[in-house]
Design a protein that fits this description.
The protein has 446 residues and is of the alpha/beta class. Among the domains are: 133 residues, 3-Layer(aba) Sandwich (Rossmann fold); 163 residues, NAD(P)-binding Rossmann-like Domain (Rossmann fold, 3-Layer(aba) Sandwich), CATH 3.40.50. The strands form two sheets. Strands 9-8-7-6-10-11-12 form a seven-stranded mixed beta sheet, with helices on both faces. Strands 1-2-4-3-5 form a five-stranded mixed beta sheet, with helices on both faces. Strand 10, helix 13 and strand 11 form a beta-alpha-beta unit. Helix 2 runs parallel beside helix 6 and helix 9 packs across helix 10. It is globular and about 60 Å long. The structure holds NADPH dihydro-nicotinamide-adenine-dinucleotide phosphate. NADPH dihydro-nicotinamide-adenine-dinucleotide phosphate (NDP) binds next to helix 10.
Length: 446
Amino acid sequence: MHDYVNSVLESVAVRNHGQPEFYQAVQEVLLSLVPALKAHPHYARHGILERLVEPERQIMFRVTWEDDSGQVHVNRGCRIEYNSAIGPYKGGLRFHPGVNTSILRFLGFEQVFKNALTTLPMGGGKGGADFDPKDRSDREIMRFCQAFMSELFRHIGPDTDIPAGDIGVGAREIGYLFGQYKRLTNKFNGVITGKSVNWGGSLIRPEATGYGAVFFSHEMLKMRGEDLTGKVCAVSGSGNVAQYTTEKLLQLGAKVVTLSDSDGSIYDPEGINAEKLAWVMDLKNKRRGRIKEYADTFKAVYREGVRPWFVPCDCAFPSATENEINGQDAQELLRQGCKLVCEGANMPCTPEAIELFQQAGILYAPGKAANAGGVATSGLEMSQNSTRLSWTREDVEQRLHQIMINIHKNCYQTAEKYGCPGNYMVGANICSFLKVANSMLEQGLV
Ligand code: NDP
C-alpha cells in the first residue's frame, strides 16, 4: 500500500508543480491512510485516492473594481468545488494577498475531510481572492465584494455550493456578498453562512470555531484525567478564531497569555481577562487596529515579527494561519512545557512540528477535527434556513458541544482501531476518508 500511496503522491507533485501547501496537505492525509488502505484494498482498485486528490471543479475569474480615488484594480477570484460525495460543496472564502491556487486547493482538500467529520451532509469547497482588505475603506470593501459576487453567483446555490467566511471575510463581507447575490438572483435563500442573525444567521456561528476547538481540547485532556482549569494557554492570531478560543478558555478557567497578528505578538503574563478581550474585539472588529496597541494600553510585552511560541505555557492554540508553528517553534513550545497543541487554524503546524509533538507524546489535535465546529455550526445554520426557524443560543451551543464530543470520540476510536492509539491525526484522516470514499463508491464512477 505504501507503493500505491507513493505513486499517487508522485503524480500529485508532477501535476501540481509549484503548489507546496497543497502537496503538504495531501501528503499528510495520504501517508496516514496506509493502515486503512491495507485493511480495505478495494479502495486502491477503484482509484479512490486518484479521484480524491483532484477537485471536481475549479473556477477562476477576474474581479474588477474601483477604489475610492477612481483607480481600477484587477484581482483574481477562485472557487474550488472539491468533492460533493456527501453533500453540496461547503467551505469558506478567503480574501488575503497570499491567496493562490496552492492555498485554496489545500484548504479545499482539508475541508472535504473536515466536513465529513462533522457527520453533517456537506461536501468540501473553498474559494477567495488575492485581495488585501487591509486599509481599505468600507465602500471599497463593498465594491470588491459586489464585483466578486458578480461572477461567483453563477456557480453557487443552497443545494449546490454554500460559501462562508475565512481570513479577511467576516460578518461585514458576508453581508455585502449576500446583498449582491440577492440583487442578481432575486432569491433570498441560505446560499451563504455566517450571516447576521438579523437576516437568517445562526446564533453562536461567530463563536463556533473557537468554542469548538476548546471543547475538543477539553475532551483530549479528559482522556488523561485533566481539564483546562488553571492551564496557561498561548493563542495566536487575534481574529475570529483567536477571539472566541480565548473567550471559551476564560469561561473554562484557563489563563490566556498571548495573541498576535501578522505584525507581531503580545505576551501578557497577568492574563487576558474578559475586559481586555472585549477591548481586543473592539480593536480588531471595529477599529481594525494592530495588536501592538494592546501592549501599549495594558503594559504587556510586544515582539515585532515574532510568533507567540516563546512563552511558558501548558497549551497552545494556533489560530492565525497555515505553517505558523515550524520545527523550531515546536521545540521551543516543548521546552516551555507545552503538553497540548490544538489547531484552531488550518494546517498551522508543519509536518516537522507534528512529528516532534508526536515523538514527545503530547496531545496534538489536527485542525480538520479541532476547528470543525465552525463548519458544523454553518451546517446548523443551513438547517435553520431550510426550516425557516431560529434556534436559541443555548440550543446551538449544546449541539455544537455534542458534535465536538462526537468528533473527538470518532477520531480517538478510529485511531485505536487502526493501530495508532492516541494519534488524533490518523484517527481524523481515516475516519473521514472512510465516509467520503464509501460514498464515492456507492455513487459510481462520476
Ligand atoms: P481572521 O481574518 O478573523 O483572523 C486571522 C488572524 O490571523 C488575524 O489576527 C491575522 O492578522 C492573522 N494572520 C493572517 N495571516 C497571517 C500571517 N500570514 N501571519 C501571521 N498572522 C496572520 O480569520 P479567522 O480567525 O477566521 O481564521 C484564522 C484561521 O482559522 C485560518 O487558518 C482559517 O482558515 C481557520 N479557520 C477559520 C474558521 C472560521 O470559522 N472563521 C473555520 C475553520 C478554520 P492580521 O489582522 O494582521 O492579518
